[in-house]
Design brief:
This protein is α+β, with helices and mostly antiparallel strands and 286 residues long. It has eight helices and ten strands. It starts with 24 loop residues before the first strand and ends with a helix.
Amino acid sequence: MGEKRPHASESESESESGSSHRTESRASDRGDRHLNSKQTDGSDSDDDSVGSNEIVNVDFEFFDPQPIDFHAMKRMFEGSFGDDSDQFNTSALVDLILSQPEIGSTVKMDDDSDPYAFMTVLSTRRDSEVITQLCQYLVKKAGPKAPALSQLLDTHHVGLLFSERVINMPPQVVVPMLRMLMTEIEKAQGFDFEYFVLVCSMYSEVPGDDEPAKACEMDVFVHAEEEFMEEFAHLVFDFKFSRLKRVAEARNTFADAGLAPSRRCLVIHRSKIDSILARLEDVLEL
């Protein structure tokens, strides 16, 4: 992992911060960072992939959100909102993020590559149609907890926390990104949030075609760290997408295995962030 650069248009020597954030990341056979390269151990193997038991060291850098990240971030948003993504203007959502480059981070190999992860926060007080759409969508999905969520959104300054990464990016990147984000919003004006709302991607167990209906027995977080963040949530509710489509075979594979995509919304008070960081450092062994 490397340093967070202030801007693509600024040189590092011109940065006022002068500080860098560097974290090492190792990838294993679970695909934390899969490299499709020839072996370099001198063997005569024709296998072009890294051995399943090998560990590779890969350096990533933290960057501020930049216009070059637009399409990759849009794709990640569309994946996060799944079959309901067409209910929002995801392009407008990315534009809002890019309009505040001093807030949030991306994780990339270099300036010109697509981000493998990003984290940022948007104020629910932004005068934006897409922010209004998102808030109304979440209240509608909150079920019995809709009145509590609606009141919280109306009476408190709430930040919509977005933490997205590709599936094979290790969760260890979350801690430095969250820590940097908290530092940035403390220094910026207009980001004095009392609560954060985080929508977590999940898969829930469902009965197969030949099985009787039964209660869900298993919920799986796509991003493992969010299971531990839930421990500190002020409000939690689950929801399913409004519409389901027959999409890629990868999604169908999950359905055939008895898992269906769902979402869990966490509302977290600002005072819990330090405890969350400590908890994540512990479970991720940082």
